[in-house]
Write a structure and sequence with these properties.
By secondary structure, the chain is of the alpha+beta class. It has a single domain, classed as Alpha-Beta Plaits (2-Layer Sandwich). The protein is about 35% helix and about 30% strand. The longest helix has 17 residues. It has a 4-stranded antiparallel sheet with strand order 2-3-1-4. GO terms for molecular function: monooxygenase activity. This is Heme-degrading monooxygenase HmoA. Keywords: Monooxygenase, Oxidoreductase.
Length: about 110
């Protein structure tokens, strides 16, 4: 489970995927498999979550990594490059963006 705090040194990556309702479930299954079988086992991985909007036209992915370099190394592996080609076929677009936590509110 992601621990969101501005006091940690984790690299936060938020990726948004845009797709049609017809491909949402296939994309969600591909992403779930990628996390279960590969991404969650990579060095530096901490946690992740997948969120689907009610229209099934967007998936938001929140992940945390020990270091920026860990996330980038995972992206460069042959397996992840192949998985991303499949993901690209299932959606209109996707964009991973690295963030620093600026502030949190409520129970975290």
């Amino acid at each position: 489970m992601p621990q969101i705090s501005k006091n940690n040194s984790y690299q936060t990556v938020i990726t948004t995927f845009e797709m049609t309702p017809g491909t949402c479930q296939d994309l969600l299954e591909a992403l779930t498999d990628a996390y279960a079988a590969f991404i969650s086992k990579q060095p530096g991985f901490i946690s992740a979550g997948l969120h689907v909007n009610d229209a099934q036209t967007r998936i938001a992915n929140y992940s945390q990594w020990e270091r920026r370099e860990d996330f980038l190394a995972m992206l460069r592996t042959p397996e992840m490059r192949e998985r991303n080609r499949r993901v690209n076929e299932l959606c209109k677009s996707f964009e991973p963006v690295m963030y620093d936590v600026a502030e949190t509110f409520g129970d975290t």
